[in-house]
Design brief:
alpha+beta, eleven-stranded mixed sheet, 19 helices
Length: 598
C-alpha cells in the first residue's frame, strides 16, 4: 500500500475521521520490523492513543475537523528526534533513552493531527551522508539495493520514497536532509536555521543543526514546515522570521552555478545534471557561472577544522566512557575534535563569518544557487572500501550551507542513465524558504516524474498559498510594472503575482495636478471591473511602503472580480471632484496609451 499526498489523505478522512482506525490497521500491517529503515515502529496502542486525542477533541466540541490540517496523516521521525514514550537511540543502543516529552516539532505536528508511526534509522549521531554507519544496518537505495541510500537521514528518506508515510522528519547539519532526498527521488526541505525548533533533538552541531522535511511533493514539504516552524522559546537558537524576504523569485530567473563542477569521474551524474541545467534554461532561467572558491573553503571547515569539536561535545560521555559502543568511523571523526583548543574554535568562527559574508555577497545578485545535490553516488561495497573519502564527496555541494546561514531545497532532477536518481538543490539566503518552495512546485510540475520510488503521479493541481509573512497588494496606477513608482515595490522585495481585475463596483479617475500622474480608485454603485496588478510585499516592509503614499491616496481593502479581498489603493472622495473619470478605459495603462497617442 502506498499512502497519499497530504491533500489527498486529509480529503479522504475529513468527512469520516473514524475511518482512520481501519486505515491504520492496514498501515500497521504494511510496516515490517524486518525493514531496517525503521529502528522503532509504534505499537497499535501508541497509534490509537494519538488518534483518540483527535477524536476526543472533535467529539467534545473543543475542536472541529478543520482545526486539524494534518488530520490523521502518518509520518516518521528520525531517531534523534524525541517522541514521548518512544525510545530515542541516535542509532547507538548504549545511548538509548525514552523521553517523557515530545520535541517541539513533534508536538506541533501532533497538534495539527499528524500521527507518528515510528522512528527511522540514521548514520550514528547524525554523523555521515551515507546511511551505512548504523548498528541497525545500512539502509539501501530505494531504486537499486546495491547502492547507498544517503544519510544521515537514511531511514526517513527511504520510508517516504516507498510511500510508507506521507512525510518524514530528518535533520540536516551538513546535508543529511538533502543527500538522501537526491538519492531517492524525493523532496528534501532544509529550512533556514532557527525556523524549525531543535528543542528535543539530539544535537550533532547545535550551531548548525536543522530539522528537515522529506516528502513526495514540494507542496507537502512546504505545508509541514509551515506548521512545524515558528519561534520557540525552549530553543536558545530559535529565531523569529524577520518577514523581509520575497515570496517568489523574480520573473526573469537568474541562477548561479559553480564555475567548475566536480563529479569525481562520475560521467553518469555529470550527464544527468547537464540535462537538468538545459531544462532550466528551456524554462527561461539564466545560468551564470560564479567563482566557487569560497564555498569550497567554507565546506572544508566543517570536518577539517575545529567545527568537528561540536560533534565531540554532542556525544557526551559515550566517547570517554564507552567508546567501543560507537561506530568506529563515527568514533574516529568525533574523537578528532579533542585535538583542537578553544583558541582554534574561536579562529574557526572568525573564518566562518568571513567566508559566509563573501558567500552571501556573491549570492545577493541571484535568485538562488543551483548545484547537484550530490556529485556522485557509490555502491555499498564501494563505500566499505573508502568510507571517509566517498562520504566527503557526497558533501561537496552541501557542507557549506548551514555554516553560511543559507536555506536549501533538494528537488528531483533528471535520472542517470542507469536509473539512479540524480537530484538537484537550490540554495538561497536565509528566510527565502517560501521563494524556494514556489519555484520547486513549478519545477516539479514541469518535470512530471513519478513520485519517489512509487508509481504515483504528481497531483494535477497545486494549492496556491498566501504566506502570513507577506501582504498581497493590488496596484492600479504609478506602481504598475513599467511605471515610475514601481521601484517602491521592487526595492522592498515585493514580487509580481498576477494581473487581475476588481469587482464591477469601482470607478477609476485621473487625478488633477499630480506628478507623476496618478489615478484614483473609488467604490461606486455604478462601475465596472478595473485592471490591477497583484504584488506580494514582505510584511515587515509593508509599513514603509504605506508611509510613502501621499494624500489623497491610501491603502484599503479591495474586492476582486473573483471574490478575493486584498489590500489596495483607494482615493479620498474630496479629490475626485476635479478629477477626470476614465472608468470606460478599464485601467490606467489603457487610458495612458490612448491619452498619449491623442
Amino acid at each position: 500500500m502506498s499512502v497519499a499526498t497530504l491533500p489527498e489523505w486529509v480529503a479522504s478522512y475529513r468527512q469520516h475521521p473514524q475511518q482512520l482506525v481501519a486505515a491504520y490497521q492496514q498501515l500497521n500491517a504494511n510496516l515490517s520490523r524486518d525493514d531496517n529503515a525503521w529502528i522503532y515502529i509504534a505499537t497499535q496502542d501508541e497509534i490509537y492513543a494519538q488518534l483518540t486525542t483527535i477524536f476526543q477533541a472533535i467529539n467534545s466540541g473543543e475542536k472541529q475537523v478543520a482545526d486539524f490540517p494534518l488530520l490523521g496523516v502518518p509520518f516518521a521521525a528520525k531517531d534523534n528526534i524525541n517522541v514521548a514514550g518512544m525510545p530515542t537511540s541516535a542509532a547507538c543502543p548504549t545511548f538509548t533513552y525514552t523521553p517523557e516529552k515530545d520535541a517541539t516539532v513533534i508536538a506541533r505536528l501532533k497538534a495539527a493531527g499528524a500521527i507518528v508511526v515510528g522512528k527511522t534509522n540514521l548514520d550514528q549521531f547524525a554523523t555521515g551522508l551515507v546511511g551505512t554507519r548504523s548498528p541497525f544496518g545500512a539502509v539501501k537505495n530505494t531504486f537499486n539495493p546495491e547502492y547507498v541510500s544517503g544519510g544521515s537521514s537514511s531511514g526517513s528518506a527511504s520510508v517516504v520514497a516507498r510511500g510508507l508515510v506521507c512525510f518524514a522528519l530528518g535533520t540536516d547539519t551538513a546535508g543529511s536532509g538533502r543527500v538522501p532526498a537526491g538519492f531517492n527521488n524525493i523532496v528534501g526541505l532544509k529550512p533556514t536555521k532557527g525556523w524549525v525548533s531543535t528543542a528535543g533533538v539530539v544535537p550533532a552541531c547545535r550551531l548548525n543543526d536543522c530539522v528537515s522535511v522529506f516528502a513526495l511533493t514540494v507542496e507537502d514539504a512546504e505545508t509541514v514546515a509551515a506548521i512545524a516552524g515558528g519561534y520557540d522559546r525552549q530553543d536558545p537558537y530559535s529565531r523569529a522570521n524577520p518577514q523581509t524576504a520575497p515570496a517568489r523569485f523574480s520573473e526573469k530567473l537568474r541562477f548561479a552555478i559553480p564555475d567548475r563542477l566536480e563529479f569525481f569521474g562520475d560521467r553518469l551524474s555529470e550527464v544527468a545534471f547537464a540535462k537538468t541545467l538545459a531544462r532550466l534554461q528551456q524554462q527561461g532561467a539564466e545560468l551564470v557561472p560564479i567563482d566557487f572558491t569560497v564555498f569550497n573553503e567554507l565546506a572544508a571547515q566543517l570536518y577539517n577544522g575545529a567545527w568537528v569539536a561540536e560533534r565531540t561535545v554532542a556525544v557526551g560521555d559515550i566517547l570517554k566512557n564507552k567508546p567501543e559502543a560507537m561506530d568506529p568511523i563515527v568514533r574516529g571523526i568525533v574523537a578528532n575534535g579533542l585535538n583542537y583548543t578553544a583558541c582554534d574554535a574561536w579562529q574557526a568562527e572568525y573564518t566562518r563569518a568571513e567566508l559566509s559574508r563573501k558567500i552571501n555577497a556573491q549570492l545577493s545578485e541571484f535568485d538562488a544557487l543551483v548545484v547537484p545535490t550530490s556529485p556522485t553516488i557509490h555502491t555499498l561495497a564501494e563505500m566499505a572500501q573508502e568510507p571517509v573519502r566517498y562520504n566527503s564527496q557526497f558533501g561537496t555541494y552541501t557542507n557549506f550551507t548551514n555554516l553560511a546561514d543559507l536555506c536549501a531545497l533538494a528537488l528531483p532532477g533528471d535520472f542517470r542513465a542507469d536509473g539512479i536518481p540524480a537530484g538537484i538543490t537550490l540554495i538561497a539566503p536565509a528566510w527565502h524558504d517560501q521563494a524556494l518552495s514556489h519555484f520547486g512546485k513549478s519545477w516539479q510540475q514541469a518535470l512530471n516524474q513519478p513520485l519517489g520510488a512509487t508509481e504515483k503521479a504528481l497531483p494535477a493541481t497545486i494549492t496556491a498559498k498566501i504566506s502570513a509573512n507577506h501582504v498581497r497588494v493590488a496596484v492600479v496606477g504609478a506602481h504598475l510594472r513599467g511605471m515610475p513608482l514601481n521601484h517602491q515595490l521592487t526595492t522592498r522585495n515585493a514580487v509580481f503575482i498576477e494581473e487581475s481585475r476588481t469587482a464591477a463596483n469601482y470607478r477609476l479617475y485621473a487625478l488633477a495636478n499630480t506628478q507623476p500622474p496618478k489615478p484614483g480608485l473609488a467604490r461606486s454603485l455604478e462601475g465596472q471591473p478595473i485592471a490591477v496588478e497583484l504584488w506580494d510585499i514582505p510584511l515587515a516592509r509593508f509599513g514603509e511602503f504605506v508611509a510613502e503614499i501621499p494624500a489623497p491616496l491610501g491603502i484599503g481593502t479591495l474586492t476582486l472580480e473573483d471574490g478575493r479581498s486584498v489590500k489596495g489603493f483607494i482615493c479620498e472622495p474630496a479629490a475626485l471632484s476635479d478629477a477626470t473619470d476614465i472608468t470606460a478605459w478599464g485601467g490606467w495603462k489603457a487610458w495612458l496609451a490612448r491619452h498619449h497617442s491623442a
